[in-house]
Amino acid sequence: TTTLSMVTGLLRPDQGKVEVAGHDVWRDPVEVKSRIGVLPEGLRLFERLSGRELLAYTGRLRGLPGAEVDKRATQLLDVLDLAGAQHKLVVDYSTGMRKKIGLAAALLHNPEVLFLDEPFEGVDPVSAQTIREVLERYTRSGATVVFSSHVMELVESLCDWVAVMAAGRIRAQGTLAQVRGEAPSLQNAFLELVGAGSRATDDSLDWLDGKR
Questions:
Q1: Residue 45 contacts residue 92 (beta carbons within 8 Å)
Q2: pLDDT for 144-185, tens place per residue?
C-alpha cells in the first residue's frame, strides 16, 4: 500500500525516483495522473452522490466531454451490473458495489496504467468475477494493471509478472514460473522468500489439542 501510494503520487518518497509511462511522478504529476487510474485500498468516495453522479463528476474532472462521460458511464454501469443501483446514493452501496463503482471511476478516462490495492478484498464471488472479466478485457487492449494482494492464489491466477516484497524490499521478481521456482505454489515460494516459519506447531497452543 505504501509503495503504491508513492508510485501514484499520493505519498512523497524520502528518496528515489518513480516514473510511469516515461514521466516522473513528482516532477510532472499532472501528466502522470492523466495517464493512470487508481483504486486504493481505503476507498473514499463522495457518498452523498449517486453512482451515476459520481461517474459524471469524475469524468468531468478528467476533462472528458459531457456526452462522452455519459456514454462511458452507462456502459460501465451496465457491464459492472450497477445499472439498477445507478441512482442510489453511494453511502448505501455494499462493499462489492463500492469496489465496482470505484473501478468504474478509475477506468472512465481509459488510463494507460491501472493501480489496484487489494481490489477483491471483501468482495462477493459474483462481483469478483465481474471485476476479473473487466480487467482481463482491459489488459487485452495493451494496458497494464498493477495490483497488490496478500492472497497468493489470486495473484497466481491473474498475474503475468510478480514481485514479492517484504520489509520494504523486493525479495524476488519475474514471471510466475521464475518466482515460484521449485516450490509447489506461489504461496510456498512466498513463505520461503520472506522466511516465515510456522508458529502454530509449538507447545504454546497445546490446549487446542485437548478433547472437549
A1: no
A2: 999 898 889 989 988 999 999 988 889 999 999 999 999 999
The domains of the chain are located at 2-148, 151-198
pTM listed for this prediction: 0.85
Provide the CATH number for the domain formed by 2-148 in this structure: 3.40.50.300
